[in-house]
Specification:
121 residues; alpha+beta; 4-stranded antiparallel beta sheet; 2 helices; 4 strands; elongated
Length: 121
């Protein structure tokens, strides 16, 4: 009888521990939605910057990269590459694609944009 009580108690303890761990993951995931949205919008801003630099470069000097930190605390970085996969300036006509990375908190998101397949109205 003591053995049966110990086995049932151990099983209940194990189930409770697993349920608590799953709840912890759900709570952590629900709090990361805000950072995920910030990271996605930062990466999107980087894509827009890369396309603007490629299709309509300004007459004056172009900064080497978009603003690093946005007002909401998200960080964006953009790297443009040519067809040999070497980094180049986004305003360079030989740019073939760009990778825009946005991060906020511990969340990171990235977008890829092909320059040769994009069109500007």
């Amino acid at each position: 009888m003591i053995l049966a009580v110990l086995m049932l108690g151990g099983a209940m303890l194990g189930v409770t521990a697993i349920a608590g761990l799953l709840m912890l993951y759900q709570i952590r995931q629900s709090t990361d939605y805000e950072n995920s949205a910030k990271a996605i919008f930062a990466a999107d801003a980087g894509v827009e910057w890369a396309l603007q630099s490629y299709f309509k470069p300004p007459a004056g000097p172009l900064p080497g990269s978009p603003p690093g930190t946005l007002e909401n605390g998200a960080v964006v970085s953009v790297t443009c590459y040519d067809n040999t996969n070497s980094p180049v300036a986004c305003s360079n006509p030989s740019s073939t694609y760009a990778i825009s990375e946005g991060s906020a908190g511990g969340t990171k998101r990235a977008f890829f944009v092909g320059m040769s397949t994009s069109t500007f109205p």
